[in-house]
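Quick log. Single chain, no ligands specified.
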Amino acid sequence: MARFALWTGLHLFACPLLAAARDPSILQRGLATNGLLASSGSYSGNDQYLQLTSSLPYGTNIYGLGEVIASSGFRRDIGTGGGVGTLQTMWDRDDPDPIDENMYGSHPIYLEHRYNETTGKSSSHGVMLFSSSGADILLSTPQSEKNVSLIEYRLVGGVLDFYFFAGPSPTEVIAQYSAVTGLANWQPAWGFGFHLCRWGYHNISITRDQVLRMREANIPLETQWNDIDLYHAYRDFTSDPVSFPGDEMREFIEELASNNQHYIPIVDAGVAILNNATDVYYPYSRGSELDVFVKNPDGSEYIGQVWPGYTVFGDWFANNTQQWWSEALRNWSNYGIEFSGIWLDMNEVSSFCNGSCGTGANTADTGVPIEIPGQPGNLVTGYPECYNSTLSGPSGNMTINGTLTYACGIAGAEGALAKRGIGAGEETGVNLNDPPYAIHNSFGPLWVKTLATNATHAGGYVELDVHNMWGMMEEKATHAAVSEIRAGERPFLISRSTFPSSGRWSGHWGVLQFQIYQIPFVGADTCGFQDNTDEELCNRWMQMSAFVPFYRNHNTLGALSQEPYRWPSVANASRIAIAARYSMLPYWLTLFANVSTIGTPPVRALFYEFPDEPELFEVDRQFMVGPDILVTPVLTPNATTVDGIFPGRGTVVWRDWWTHDVVNATVGGNTTLSAPLSHINVHIRDHSALLLHAEPAYTIAETRAGPYALLISLDTAGTAFGNAYVDDGISSPPGPSTVLTFTVANGELNVKSEGAWAIEQMLEEITVLGVQAKPTEVTLGGAPVEGWTYDEGQEGLTFSNISVDLNESSMLAWK
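-> predicted structure:
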């Protein structure tokens, strides 16, 4: 890893591949070349601009630069024929699903993967711009160049501080990035269970009913969540005394705990101010006493507007903010809301008005009316593609029958880049509110729907320079608070806004790109947050999300209910997928032990594992869980088959997770797989040995208390390898652990056990796939084994009448 930095105010720094520009004529040419300069635009010298351009090989593969939902998919578009392929803006904003625009978080790192057609080999490296300043990052290919593409950085201030990660493999680049950001937070084992939430569980009776109905349907539920319905007057750290009375909430949460289940509430970024002289709200009054809120330039409290009305926002640079935040969370936990983890929301930071709209206002007036989803004028009417509410009714219950066809396509996004000017450009001093170079923030001015950029923080910092860090700093403070409140336990956090190092403190949603950002504990709002889902979409989504780290069903207020028990087919698909997920829990915990110790990503794009196969470089409709599990979900409406590529170009034997059958895969191209409703294609790579739970149960605790199983998939040479990390799944910092290593060669399975954690559960089942002939003799530790079976069609050797102590090394042999 190499590093260089260029600070604002220094002279031009140049090397063969890098050039920094502060000369106005260079800026002007750069804007004009990329078609982004308005015809009437002009520019004069100003210190609020940094530009750096570097060449890239034409046709290279770039990943990262987010957070983004890119129309090009996981691989970023580098443009052709003089066009800009990608313009990624780094400015956090509250917008849930924009295409090719900035959204919740900022991660100015990319992974480049280069393929050498002469040698047939590839190599990867990474580049990180370590800056919190607002920026545009462009990928383009000039029309005049034949073999060169460009990456261009345009910042409105701050420091050009670059880190380079040498790789040479994709997983090594991601692991090396952790040396800068820090290693990912250790996740509690229960965090891998299924979570249920929605905005619209209006009271404790409705919330409790979800827990009961999930159990009645025998769909495992690990953690119940509440959105802002929980709050009194939408105020943080409260529960409504009528809808969620404290004594009933305490009883409900204790009831969950007695059943090995958990509870998580939401915490919004904006803290309500007092409405009048008789109003009592301790989180605000205590925060004012400790002087912990963001200020206006004149030193008064900066007052925006969120759900409770006028609000203030914590200043994470102030000396007393950690004390205030920890007190607020501790008091909340002590007085009825004894949470297992915390969900941080609205922390870009989001504000519904522009500027310090509450300063000097009548604070008894909440200001501009806020349209709540589901209210008249803001009804939730959207449905998934192919859903016909006229035919099927507004129920989400799409008719599923034997005549399914590809009835419609998936709407694409407009890819054209709108031209923008370069800002006012006439100020002689620093312009905090409207910098002269207008980065392409999709709300327009940087202060729209967030804190004004002239808002001030302790230490003299201004929002313009530190805006993108707010969410990450809140995560760090919350992590510290939860670590104190639930001492000795691994904190569980999910946060909406993220920044480099957020993975040390929290998880998020989004999957492949966030593995690059070292935020591995991620997953979508299953079945969809916005608009209305339907039976087919929720069925497919519940299956797919069972194979990503964070598994939560969540939707918006006013939309159709989408809990998995609502439709029989979804309930069935959920039970099947969750059972598979819980059986894989030892594998998940091992992958996350690795990311928390050496930084290797738990979820992987296919080319991470097969870097020399160019046909995989843009595949993002399949993914791998670790190195051994390939997932091919159905992402198309009305489908009964799915196309997927099987990496390895014929050198790898892939076996079906469900049936253990070998796949007759097309070499280097797509294979069409059967995918009826409620079935997701999952395959096991050869040369793998996976420790599993033999009896997946209703909760993670019950599952972990049961026996183990071992699934081995031999390669054509008859070998396999795997390991498993085992500990108590909760202690922070991690306590004693044991690492199990499984090695197979020459008809022998050797189990090596090293560590101080005492594994109480026995290994009671072993399946070895790829045994080419039925054995005549099987021994365990030299003693004959009875009760084994052999399936000639699957070449499967199964032992189900054994009891192996995993605290001791052992050997199983067959011949």
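Residues 290 and 529 are 37 Å apart (CA to CA).
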